[in-house]
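Board notes (copied after class):
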Amino acid sequence: MSRIEEALEKAARMRVESPSEVIAKKTVPKVHLPPPMTTAGITVTNRLLVTVNDPHTQAAEEYSKLKSVIVKMTKEGSFLNMLMVTSSVGGEGKSLTSLNLALSLAQEFDHTVLLVDADIRKPSIHSYLGIDNSVGLTDCLLDGVDVKDALIRTGIGKLSVLPAGRSAPNPAEVFTSRRMRDFLLEMKNRYHDRYIIIDTPPVLPFAETRSLSAIVDGIVLVAKEGLVTLHNIEETLQCIKGPPMLGIVYNEAATEFKHDLYKYCREGYA
């Protein structure tokens, strides 16, 4: 059979085949899509998360005021997007403060928030939200897990969470390493358009928070009356000098002591 006859026969076959049959014979290249971020679809039930469960209470209003101050201070010039929430000692409410602040920011239309649980000695963010903690920050640092594969989208506004992940036998060494610094700087650049709020260990008992303070753009210090002294606060501020101290959140404050603390902060660290 000549080439002309072969071409005529092929044309005849294509005339009788339906368009769908012709398309089916074509090779369609496979497209490999990146794995989607885990979505938790969280229903918040913890009553301490007042910015979601009791938005009209006085406590929620105080978090709203904190949010407004933070937004104003971090957007006056260049966007200061990486913030650290810490305390002098344990049990002062830093994790609840970081979480309620993150929730309050994320529920606004203009703000996307990534909350990082960096308190790997005593992680709690996952417990408050009821999310999985099997993969998180330590897995990114120690095992090379990409941060996008460890993030959990909460479904609450535009809030994503990086849990603490598995426990580390040497948290101080991990957090003071060059790897930690590079990881945070990569996150800051990758997610430059959103707030990154880092819940850290308390400052005085542990060394790692002091090294983290040299990386972030600003610090929020949580202090609880009856658990921390002005001497503790002064020592903490000396330990984390460097980035701007955005403010002190004073928990369960009696009026008289609250005024004394305000005067101290204004005169000593204005």
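Comment from the instructor: The first strand starts at residue 38 and ends at 39. The beta strands are 38-39, 82-87, 113-117, 152-153, 159-162, 195-199, 218-224, 245-251.
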